[in-house]
Design brief:
By secondary structure, the chain is of the alpha/beta class. The protein has 17 helices and 13 strands. It has a six-stranded parallel beta sheet, sandwiched between helices.
Length: 407
């Protein structure tokens, strides 16, 4: 079996993005992921469209692009959790799984007898990962939480966007739901760590992940800038708070990113730009001085960059080994030779779309290479398969459950 987690089975009770992203990571790593959805509706993100995935004739299918972004590699089972018999099915599945993912509000699954304390009795080795907006403890624990809220409450929007005194200034959210995604990434790490602990001790674990915790954690250097000084960093647009020049500049025909991460790179840039004097100017000779004199250096470099086209700058800086790059549209991203060479776009067969285009996992292994075989599932696509092969239900029993609205 391909993938380092090919021996692991995951029960994914989650919806939308943060926890489903965790499930998709685990599926990419080789785990069998069983996604439990509501009969008839499924994961909320199935309705997050347009756009929809298109069939070979170019017609929209019922599959949203949003859902497909976070559910590759999973098997969909529909179960009515409001019914005791549906709860019993999920309980049986949990007994046969290594990991359970859920993002219900704190305490919700206890009503169904599916909380960690309930399931650890039947599966002591279960790794149970809960993802909520604010965690299982604290004064906000019962509040619903969303990525946008966490970006605001967690400080990200106070440092993202153009300065307030410039056109377009004001708080901005990141263009993708970054807190959801980062929470999913942290949760993936936590699950893998818990599995490693279980391998050594035989014990399961409960993992409490929160969107707000994650956002605070990945404030990273900006959090430390505040903790070190007592002053809250502000918005700098595309500039870097601690490195100069590390920003965008306008060229004759567009924009370019310049990333001089040390004094040597700045000196190389000055040579390419024909401005060697700037590299030895006491105001700009070190990064600390460049940060202090950011405004003046930015003004000088803006005039320099306006003298050539983006392509001319990219080629010249590339030859000199100075980190730089254009600002691509998403279409241009997938046309980049490096992105193509790394196989970041993949296509998988799909039951209604014919094939579905997807973004590959960036994780690469030599000993346990990843294989992408299972596309995002249609709603309930694998219900009968899982009930019969994993739980040993007969065809007659599956038919009875379906007729009773349990699945």
């Amino acid at each position: 079996m391909a993938g380092p987690l090919s021996h692991i089975r995951v029960l994914d009770l989650s919806r939308v993005l943060a926890a489903p992203w965790t499930g998709q990571n685990l599926a990419d790593l080789g785990a069998e992921v069983i996604k439990v959805e509501r009969p008839g509706k499924g994961d909320d993100s199935r309705a997050f469209g347009p756009p929809w995935i298109r069939d070979p004739e170019g017609r929209d299918t019922a599959e949203s692009a949003y859902f497909c972004a976070a559910n590759r590699g999973k098997k969909s089972v529909t179960v009515n959790l409001s019914q005791p018999e549906g709860q019993a099915i999920v309980r049986e599945l949990a007994q046969r799984c290594d990991v359970l993912l859920e993002n219900y509000k704190a305490g919700d699954l206890a009503r169904y007898g599916l909380a960690y304390e309930d399931l650890r009795k039947v599966n002591p080795g279960l790794v149970y990962c809960s993802v909520t907006g604010f965690g299982q403890t604290g004064p906000y624990s019962e509040r619903p939480g969303y990525d946008f809220m966490a970006q605001g409450m967690g400080g990200l929007m106070s440092i993202t966007g153009e300065r307030d005194d410039l056109p377009g200034g004001g708080p901005q959210r990141v263009g993708v739901p970054i807190v959801d995604i980062m929470t999913g990434m942290y949760a993936t790490i936590a699950v893998c760590a818990a599995l490693a602990h279980r391998e050594r001790t035989g014990e399961g674990n409960y993992i409490d992940m929160a969107l707000l915790d994650t956002q605070v954690a990945f404030l990273a250097n900006q959090a430390m800038n505040y903790l070190a000084t007592g002053e809250s960093p502000g918005r700098l647009g595309n500039a870097h708070p601690n490195i100069v020049p590390y920003q965008t500049f306008r060229t004759q025909d567009g924009d370019i990113i310049l990333a001089c991460g040390n004094d040597n790179l700045f000196a190389k840039f000055c040579d390419v730009a024909g401005r060697r004097a700037l590299a030895v100017d006491p105001r700009f000779a070190t990064n600390a001085k460049r940060v202090e004199n950011r405004a003046e250096l930015t003004r000088l470099l803006a005039d320099v960059f306006a003298t050539r086209t983006t392509r001319e700058w990219v080629d010249a800086l590339e030859d000199a080994g100075v980190p730089n790059g254009p600002i691509n549209t998403i279409e241009q991203v997938f046309a980049e030779p490096q992105v193509i060479a790394r196989g970041m776009r993949i296509e998988l067969p799909h039951p209604t779309a014919g094939t579905v285009p997807l973004v590959a996992s960036p994780m690469r292994f030599t000993g346990t290479p990843l294989e992408f075989k299972v596309p995002p599932p249609t709603l309930g696509q694998h219900t009968e398969e899982i009930l019969r092969e994993v739980l040993g239900r007969s065809a007659a029993e599956v038919a009875r459950l379906k007729a009773g609205g349990i699945i």
